[in-house]
Amino acid sequence: MSAAFDTIDRDILLQILKDIVEEDELSLIQFLLSNTHINTRINNADINAPFTSNVGTPQGDGLSPVLFIIYLEHALKEVRKVIGEPKSPLEEKIPREIAYADDVDFVGLEYIDIDAVQRTLHKIYNLKVNLKVNIAKTEKTLLSKNEDAWRSTKKVGSLMGDKEDRRVHGDVDFGRTWKEYKDGFGDINGDFWLGNEAVYKLTNQLLANARSGTTDLLRRQAMFYPRATAPPSLSATLQQPLDL
């Protein structure tokens, strides 16, 4: 897409968020998107007075990427409605689209399917949600055992051919089943994985230990304050280590 953050329709975004966030959160987001101004500068010299902007989200903050993902997912839902359900059992086994940030790949069994998606994107993106498809960066890739052109196609910063080589010759074991990753496999002297449940329990235990240590630190520091004095905040406690 072109200038993805700069083209978001704020009114549409706020309508989408009404069904997702609480009222207080929505008010805060609305406040952050209100009364935004843009100033044009060339060679560190302002060339005009600031003007009000009513589209797009700010760049450089932590919230805007999340808002964009929510906005893009809304657009993809509209695309799925037009495309319809998979037409064959094989289509049901493959993902309809693969998205990473503002890059979206649509997957089909034939070029005609991708052409239909491209026409739909223009109707949904450009006309309904004000997202701009970057035609210059749009390309079709045919995955085939009989052709190697796909190997030079770049996805998420890497050539697809390089990824395939790593899959075949690398250390990542793509032959493992989901059950093996869930239950664990191997031993500590070689390739091994504790299992999803064990990792979950271990992570929770580490968090519990961290909370327990923080609570103990607060108790010990409270001994140094008179009863009439309010105990320090957690952030202040962590910033002022004691000599015990």
UniProtKB/TrEMBL annotation:
Pfam families: Fibrinogen_C (PF00147), RVT_1 (PF00078). The keyword Signal applies. One of its GO terms (cellular component) is extracellular region. PROSITE patterns: RT_POL. It is found in: Secreted. Its main location: secreted. Keywords: Coiled coil, Disulfide bond, Glycoprotein, Secreted, Signal. Residues 1-155 form the Reverse transcriptase domain. Gene3D superfamilies: Gamma Fibrinogen, chain A, domain 1. PANTHER family: FIBRINOGEN ALPHA CHAIN. This is Reverse transcriptase domain-containing protein.
